[in-house]
Design goal:
Strand content: 5-15%
Number of helices: 18
Length: 417
Amino acid sequence: MLKQCLWQSEPLTSKGGQMAVIHKRGSTFLAENYRGIMLLPTIAKRFHALIRKRLMVRLHGQRPQCQIGGFAHMQVPFGSQLLQVFGRIMDAKGLSSAIVFVDLTNAFHRLIRELVSGVHLPREAEEILQALQAEGLPAHEVAELLELPCLLQQLNEGMTNSLFGLHKTFFKILMHHGASFNPSPFTSLEQPLKEFACSCGKVFTSQQGLSCHRRLIHNEFAPEHAFLAGLPDGQEFQKKPVEVQGLARVETIQAQGPLMHMEDRRRVQISQLQHELERVQTDLLVTELPPEVNTASKELRTALSQTTKEWFQLFCDEGYDERLAESLPDRWIVLLGGPEGHYDAWFEAEFMQWGQDDLPDVIADFLDGRAESLVDDAFCELVALFPRFDLMQKRTLLLAKLNCLENEIAGHFPHRT
């Protein structure tokens, strides 16, 4: 406040804030269901509100006639309508015209970005000083910034987990301890994060999701400004950081030492499995079986289960235990001797073990000709839908892994379950 009142200049920290990522609606795994809100410092907002009315009165009489931004009763659509009318008038009169969009602050922010992030300056400090003075920034303020190793290092106090990025002004991506961040709307951070991890000798794993620990920045890695040095400064990074094509996430970094607690790693794995399970269930809905195929499949499994029990009983009655052991795999024997409900699981599991070419002969031999009509009518439909059974197997495995991880967390961390 003293700097603003006595020097009549706005501090650099008033131009930035905290970027909060907020879920709007729908699936949490889709980037378009998130939005970003820049939270400005409270002191800066109060100061702006205090002087805004007085400034508006003074500027209103000095503004150009075509200036519409920042004034009352000037809505955003009015600007586009004004340009459209101007273009139509010029076109009707047959006159050449042009509409020029000028960003007067772009050069200033490109220079400020280097000072804020602490990256290596491509020009000498004197040249930077001259350029900033030409933009109206006081020399003593520039000198103060040049003496700091990284301005963001001061802003990091009190933050548990964070990643930093810059876009014209600076913003911070906040995360809670051990929280999974799926997806990251800031896709421009993905490649720089990977390059930075490689430069530090870390392993960049292809895991979907991110769980940060405070040691990721403070202890294990180089200072914050070293990470920011890897951020691109070209045209690619000038795009809106919230633009996401499809599903993109900042991936997990793993170093030689444990960066995350055991509980954090397990929760990240659970989040990844849940995302994969949601995708598999969506694919299953797309490949849903028609009613007639479901009926044929049920009849085939019923006949197969009955024949299996009869065959097994025949072997047991005649004492062909050795022959049974040689003819059937071990997993079949376990299932055949189990409860009634195991037969469906057996059929589904064995159906997916064979290829499409081998399966008809195996089923026909196993049924011993007792259900040939069912095989002829229903088996061709079942083989055509073989990918669906593969999805069912994958869903079963995912559910089993999720159950194991949840039980592990409940056993080791019962107070947090």
